[in-house]
Amino acid sequence: MAQKKYLQAKLTQFLREDRIQLWKPPYTDENKKVGLALKDLAKKYSDKLECCENEVEKIIEEIRCKAIERGTGNENYRTTGIATIEVFLPPRLKKDRKNLLETRLLITGRELRSKIAETFGFQENYIKIVINKKQLQLGKTLEEQGVAHNVKAMVLELKQSEEDVRKNFQLEEEEQNEAELKEKQIQRTKRGLEILAQRAAETVVDPEMTPYLDIANQTGRSIRIPASERKALMLAMGYHEKGRAFLKRKEYGIALPCLLDADKYFCECCRELLDTVDNYAVLQLDIVWCYFRLEQLECLDDAEKKLNLAQKCFKNCYGENHQRLVHIKGNCGKEKVLFLRLYLLQGIRNYHSGNDVEACEYLNKARQLLKELYIDPSKVDNLLQLGFTAQEARLGLRACDGNVDHAATHITNRREELAQIRKEEKEKKRRRLENIRSLKGMGYSTHAAQQALHAASGNLDEALKILLSNPQMWWLNDSNPETDNRQESPSQENIDQLVYMGFDALVAEAALRVFRGNVQLAAQTLAHNGGSLPPDLPLSPEDSLSPPATSPSDSAGTSSASTDEDMETEAVNEILEDIPEHEEDYLDSTLEDEEMIIAECAPSGGSFQPQDCSSSQMPSGLSSRCIQDFSSLPEGTD
């Protein structure tokens, strides 16, 4: 298959260079039948490629037929508005995986999915359609989603079947159940990530009691991200980790939607951030790798663009010769696994594009890196006997050029450093939570406490001054602003308390109305403003937003709420199971996949021939994979 793709790419390249139009005479007659001149063309190109003339003639004829089909489709689209979509079917369908489907672009995504399912024999609810690197949205029209004539559509099958038709009803039922479970799993993934991202945005969860995700730099310390981008970045990294977990389990059909969702959320972050962290580059590699493992690289029109983007991002992050990386981490051995995969994918892409010289160059780079990254199993065993994990052993040995003693010291030092950082980060979160509780105890809402502490860089006294100077912040409500916006009459007892403190009775009553009877807040505000209320403070229900609710919600519907909470807990736990404990998990690989593929890319006549491999082997914590931020170092740092 790979050899045929290579010949197709080379022949297409020759045809373009020679400006040959196969759909016109003398290669096609007036009845659109093949012309005699095609045999001469096949002879010319087979001599040039030093391969079988009959095989070359057959491939040229396929190219000619496809060109005629495309021309017919273009004419049909101009006259009738009916577009042609090139549908790529799952790998299990060994024959006729690439098919043409005619449709109008005003139909919805759901209608297209139904049409594909009916045409090619799928169960409609158990397939996903990917077009332009995005999942097809069922409720929008194709036109609204940017689907155009001659676009490529890839079908992802949620079920794992080996035959087109199941004769055994029990097997069919099991297959449907499996597909339903996978679809539910995808939905739980989305829900779990949304919950964790929201908790991260609130930053008031108890680290001892509530699971949450945090974003850390390359040292493991939490970093502050603008609120406008934090949730998008958290979702992007969460989807990426979930996708990587599916990749490890070789569930490529489920991994791809997660990776594409991660790409979508990363694109909501500012360009400056994407250019200074390696996460986005690693994602590009994972997306191209996933298409490759699905044997659908030709569906990814911008594979070259993604690989070039990854290479550029690595250069920006690590420096021209990895000098930034060495400055921060002291070595660059672990990151070389990323370049191995990059070079391998670049070689495969170039091969499928007919660029055999460039393909050979990239493959040779990959081979060289594979030799450098090889780890002696006995050295891993030595480190295992010292109490380290296999993952720590691989990463440590690559960081220390295979020296066991240095690797043991490196791992031990890193463990101690991370333990100290985690202790400090945990204490910092605990103090912040206590400060928020202190301000809430004074009557302020969680939202107001958060904003004040953020503005005061975590200093409780300064945050209180900010709140007293801006009493309108009291109306930053945590609950529904439409709930209970009444201002009850303050009790005479509370008024007397404020009068006893020396405040005017009328002013005291007004303050108590504003602060819903909260004597402490009223007294603090009056004292801070010289015995009067600030002129810009709303004094009536019509002028004010609703204050924080002080009473618990109604107990009705407790059973339903409990069920929802259980479902949320399940969704969150599924996400956390796939978040790796080690911050450099993405750099750890046995390289079995890469080794096998490189071995199958046997040199032949100055080029290499990668084979389609679908059976190779692929080689948990509350924090997401760290952001590797290298932006603070200049390009020339040594």
Main sheet specs:
5 strands, mixed
What is the assembly state of the chains in this entry? single chain
Overall helicity: 55-70%
Mean pLDDT: 78
- Spatial strand sequence of the major β-sheet: 2-1-5-3-4
> Distance between termini?
46 Å
Number of helices: 23
Measured by DSSP, the beta-strand proportion falls in 5-15%
Q: What structural class do helix, strand and pairing data support?
A: mainly alpha
Rg from alpha-carbon coordinates: 31 Å
Q: Strand-and-helix sequence, N→C?
A: HHHEEHEEEHHHHHHHHHHHHHHHHHHHEE
The residue ranges in which pLDDT falls below 50 over 5 or more consecutive positions are 160-172, 204-209, 478-486, 540-559, 604-638
The number of distinct β-strands equals 7
> Shape from CA axes?
globular
Region (Disordered): 532-580, 602-638
Subcellular location: Nucleus
Biased composition (Low complexity): 539-562
Biased composition (Acidic residues): 563-580
